[in-house]
Amino acid sequence: MIDKKNFKDTQLSRLGLGTMRLPVKTSVKRESNPLIDYKEGQKLVDYAISHGVNYFDTAYMYHVGKSEEFIGKALSKYPRESYYLVDKLPIWLCDTPSDMERVFNEQLERTGVKYFDNYLLHSLDSENFEKCERFGAYNFVLEKQKEGKIKNIGFSFHGTIEDLKTIVASHKWDFAQIQLNYLDWVNQNAKEQYNILTKAGIPIIVMEPVRGGKLADVASEVSDLFKNANQNKSIASWAMGFVASLPNVVTILSGMNSIEQLDDNINTLTDFKPFSDEELNICFNAASLINKNEVIPCTGCDYCSDCPKDIKISTIFSIYNDYKTGNIDAKKANELYNNIPIENNANSCIGCELCKKHCPQGINITGWMQDGIPKFFIN
Fold this sequence. Notes:
The chain is an alpha/beta fold. It has helices at residues 38-50, 67-75, 98-111, 126-135, 137-146, 161-170, 184-187, 190-199, 220-229, 235-244, 259-268, 277-293, 313-324, 330-338, 354-358, 365-376; strands at 4-7, 10-13, 15-18, 55-57, 84-89, 116-124, 150-157, 175-179, 204-207, 249-254.
């Protein structure tokens, strides 16, 4: 059974199942119509629970609003007290304070539960937090906690270090969720975020431990570095192990969409021993090698998928990064790019910057679409 860690008055599994990247029907392309494969998804949930996983994370917009419905149905066969269900308030989708009540009630209805164990103010940066304060979002969720509809209040974070300091000091938080992995330890200031939260006594839930799968599918020189250190460990296990070695990390969320991925993570976090200094240094050396080639820090979360021109942003970035990291050659990269309908490629960008507002990584998407990508790919 998977390791567990104390949190409040309970124990949470070290691994949590994130539902942003669930298995989808093979008959449709994920970026155009992310239909969840309920049968395969149920297998994932059942396998996770049978191995001790009790933390399940969803959000209002995941899989175009279908993730909440799926995880509610998938968990309904189990006693409510046997699992932790986590959801989030998307403040950017609220036009008025009353919308928070509407969204929250819709989330309860979609999932079919009477309460959420953990509830977060979603994707906070300076802009989203300012809106939360203006709308009284913290007091709203605090009231829901008093009503017994929320057990613990937290936030997920995608802002600057100064933003984080402001948010931490503003209210009492039961936990926080940050993006943390060995690549973003420096690249995205994850180390400083970790230290700020730890000093404040706020337990941490980690998202993107494998950078949207990119730290499981690395260039050959990075793979060789890990394999030379230990032939028996998977590449992904190095990323998961790095995060699990941090004492203030309670649960690590992973968007697994296959039993193989789930099983690998379960094996990594069962009877886990924190990394030695030598193993941590191997991870840092891997980050240095990756940084030599990686240009666009896209994790494939698809928060940018509401593009008015339906540009396949994450797909384009993935093709570009696969070339830059040596996974494919230039000919293959251009072939894949040119398979994208012209009305959905970079040339269709109108510069509205709606995508940038929603990007957790703060990527200058418009800049890439209008300048970097067209210069790179042969049309």
